[in-house]
Design a protein that fits this description.
By secondary structure, the protein is mainly alpha-helical. It has one domain: Orthogonal Bundle (Helix Hairpins). The protein is built from four helices and no strands. It has helices at about 5-25, 25-45, 50-80, 85-115. α2 packs antiparallel against α3 (about 50-80) and α3 runs antiparallel to α4. The N and C termini lie far apart (about 50 Å).
Length: about 120
């Protein structure tokens, strides 16, 4: 898979996003929340730095959700039975998504605060 043409690699990435959308309810929920946050940000029309922070927060949450999904796919394939270490690895990956989500909410709240305290 290494050193493939850019469009081919882009296709692989797109297929991964589509697969996550089809298989993972949490990814679909995060995408919908990201769309809602984008619309809310557009309505509030904050400064570009706030808009960039919101965009980066959304991208971080979605990227971590994709990594969490990829990790779960590999773990489930290699070790389908339940084991404490497997559960722990999945819980830690989910924790990363949770922390990014909390951070994204904090960025949104700070943006709202900054807009209304102008």
């Amino acid at each position: 898979m290494k050193n493939r043409p850019f469009l081919e690699r882009l296709s692989f990435a797109s297929l991964g996003i589509v697969a996550a959308w089809q298989r993972e309810r949490s990814f679909r929920a995060q995408v919908l929340l990201g769309i809602a946050a984008t619309a809310f940000t557009a309505v509030l029309a904050p400064s570009l730095i706030w808009a960039a922070m919101i965009a980066l927060s959304i991208a971080l949450v979605l990227a971590l959700e994709l990594l969490n999904t990829a990790l779960e796919c590999v773990i489930d394939h290699l070790h389908p039975e339940t084991a404490p270490e497997i559960k722990l690895a999945k819980d830690i990956a989910a924790g990363a998504v949770l922390l990014a989500s909390i951070g994204a909410v904090a960025v949104g709240m700070l943006m709202i605060l900054a807009i209304f305290l102008r």
